[in-house]
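Entry 14. Structure prediction run on the chain below.
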Amino acid sequence: MVGKLNTTVRPLVTLRILLVLGVALALFFVAFFGDDGYNSMPQTEVATVTSFLEEAVPGPVYAPIDDAPLADTARYNQFPVTDIFGGDGITGGAPATRNIADTVASVARSTTGGRTPAYVLVTPGMVAYSQAYGAATPRDFTTLLTALAQSRAWKLIINRAGTVIYELPPGT
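Output returned:
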């Protein structure tokens, strides 16, 4: 009778173990791959930002949100990053206005004293992150890019595959 009980219990225990493992595996996939929209960066984005960091004159980088491959070179510490949007950013969480380029330029000038260049970096990964977490609205990004394009202070230095970098030259 004991032998018959063991043969009935083993399949149930095995089934329960497989069920628990299946649920854990399913939850792992969601946890691991759920943020792929902004965690995975296109090769062109990484290559563009990396080559910029390797060749540019050091200076502060202003970004809508801090979600870019900015620590991928040995010179990463020469490009301190400041958020533009969000509660800790330049805007203090307020929506971007038409004068956002002037506001960022003013902050950059006070940071550098006009002795070094400053940069604004916008990447597709930042847009994806912002859409996923609501860090900034699509309108904020549009307003920022429009203001930079119309600004006399900021000069477009890179526009490749959605990655845009503007420079505020020293002395401006």
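Residues 38-168 form a domain with the Rossmann fold fold (CATH 3.40.50).
Filed with the rest of this week's runs.
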